[in-house]
Amino acid sequence: MEFALPSSTSFLTVVLAAALCFIVTIIRLHQRPKRKHKLPPAPRPRPLIGNLNLIGTLPHRSIYELSSLYGPLMCLRFGSFPVVVASSADMARSFLKTHDLAFIDRPKTAAGKYTTYNYSGLFSSPYGPYWRQGRKLWQAELFNARRLASLHHVRADEVRSEHLYMVNLNVISRMVLGKKYVVDGAGSPTTPEEFSRMIDEHFFLNGALNVGDLIPWLGWLDVQGYVKRMKRSAKMFDHFLEYVLDEHDERRRRRDGNEFVAKDMVDVLLELADDPNLEVPIERDGVKGFTLDFIGGGTDTSAVTVEWAMSELLRNPEVLAKANEEMDRVISRECLVEEEDITRLPYLEAVVKETMRLHPVGPLLTPRLCREDVSLGGYDILAGTRVLINVWTISRDPDVWDAPMEFRPEQFVIAGGGGGVDVKGQDFELLPFGSGRRMCPGMSLGLKMVQVILANLVHAFAWRLVLYVHCCFVLVLDCVVSFLFF
Length: 486
Known about the structure:
Blueprint: H1 8-30, H2 59-70, E1 73-78, E2 81-86, H3 89-98, H4 110-115, H5 129-142, H6 145-150, H7 152-158, H8 164-177, H9 192-207, H10 211-214, H11 226-253, H12 265-273, H13 284-315, H14 317-330, H15 346-358, E3 368-369, E4 374-376, E5 379-381, E6 386-389, H16 391-394, H17 443-460, H18 468-485
Parallel strand pairs: 2-6
Antiparallel strand pairs: 1-2, 3-6, 4-5
Helix pairs in contact: 8-13, 9-11, 12-13, 13-15, 13-17
């Protein structure tokens, strides 16, 4: 058997490779071992899906059950991404106050891309100059006390509307858009029924667990059909918003000299978009994104809270009687309740707080994204981790609330109880609007709307619960008789 001698080039290559391997080995031997991260307690994830098999159709309830096993700070894996969940007031304070800046970002999702004009709205935009500028504009120009006060007459007029959903929609339309665009008849870009479906679809798609967001390499399949629905929803809203902006642009073009005065929030946004001194320009999509935030955030949320409040009052007639007694004592029967009356109705305010405690519109706050490695509660939270705050669990914590599963407004008015707890983001036991820099900027308006609408519903009508049991018994009996004799 003959062996060929290696060439000088091949031999040199082998020697260099061996030397390189030797050097790398020596360096590794002398390097200090990397610090092992201490992650929060977690259930064992499955391949590909992580812990998604543990999440049911109501994610906040599934996470509530998991937190009873793994504690107030736990780590889950949703597909390809780690997720940390806070389920106590102390943990929420750590994320939303102590380390707010580290957890201020938003994860990018298909909903943010397709339904909010490529993250052009305030709620979905990532942390950076655009978001910081938008937050300042909301606070200084759009939701300041002076502007809300100047539009008091709009809210006072619309509280007389016949339908709960239309009260909120009409108030938001007149404050934000300048008039009621959602009406029956010619000249309207949409009908109330169609617009209600659009809002419902928008809320659903922005809250749904989209597989493509969690397992990116499966995103192109759109296995749930959500992306297709997002695109259709975005097209419908864009048609509506283009109609609104075109009318506003036409009115601005007809102005005489510099005498044009903004009369609604879209006017303000269009003026801001023309401001050359803005740090980041607001394009037309930005105006539409902010406008959609106004409409979506102010319409359905208030109506749902009032519905929950009335449901609880009807289920608890003794609470309804106390609310009525307070109204009769403070306000004449012949008068509607005004916004300035609310401070004289502490029990009604307690009813609203208790409703928001038991039935937060967003049981899981909008997800946040960790921007840097953080040590929290003795555990390591790594950059890129998604963060969920389960306010539904926090508001049912037996260490904080007496009889947490019962509807008891008294705990917000009794000294020494929850009377000092408010909903404005400073008390982490109750976070219906969130907290920190990312909390809902429309909180003041939303709270006014819920309080005034609920007060007038209670004050102006005599309410009682229909006895469905008797009706159901009669229906069942009728079915049995029909089956037996026909």
